[in-house]
Amino acid sequence: MSTAAARLLALLHRLEDGLLALAALLLLLLALAQIVLRAGFDAGWSWAEPVSRAGVLWLAMLGALGAARQQRHIAIDALPRLLPGPWRRLVHALSNLAAAAVCGWAAWIGAGLVAAEREFPLVFALGIPSWVPMLVLPAGFGLMALRLAIGAFSAPPPPGAEGGEGQGA
Questions:
Q1: How many DSSP H helices and E strands does the chain contain?
Q2: Is residue 100 part of a domain?
Q3: Domain containing residue 55
Q4: Domains in the chain, number
Q5: Which of 50, 63, 110, 119 sits most deeply, having the most CB atoms within 10 A of its CB?
Q6: pTM for the complete prediction?
Q7: 56, 136 in Cβ contact below 8 A?
Q8: How many Å apart are CA 125 and CA 51, to the nearest integer?
């Protein structure tokens, strides 16, 4: 990989990590504000609960993308750890491609859900159409499918080692 591409990828990873941290911070601040408003002023924001629920979904998807990037996603990897080098690489590639296919299917289903919701949208919160927070499903699963497909062509982690920052897409 060229140095310019490596720098761009590193910038993308930092942006992804920053977005994950920002989402967690905003959710925490929103929950804290709701607690203070309810306990201290017997009030609250009507939009805070749906935004919090959607925020948790976005946070989970961003976390899953980060885990897939570092090859720390949930995987059944007992067999690859027992196999010799070339077979381990083959099983690693096949399992990543299978996971990419499942994520691609989930992205397709998510796109269908967004399309269906766009036909008869409700108001989510603050005038935002209900399909907007659902965009995380096709986008997140699509990016995860891409990341796993790219990771299929990377070297598998050595037996007994956890996935690391330099591995994967």
A1: 6, 2
A2: yes
A3: 3-151
A4: 1
A5: 110
A6: 0.82
A7: no
A8: 7
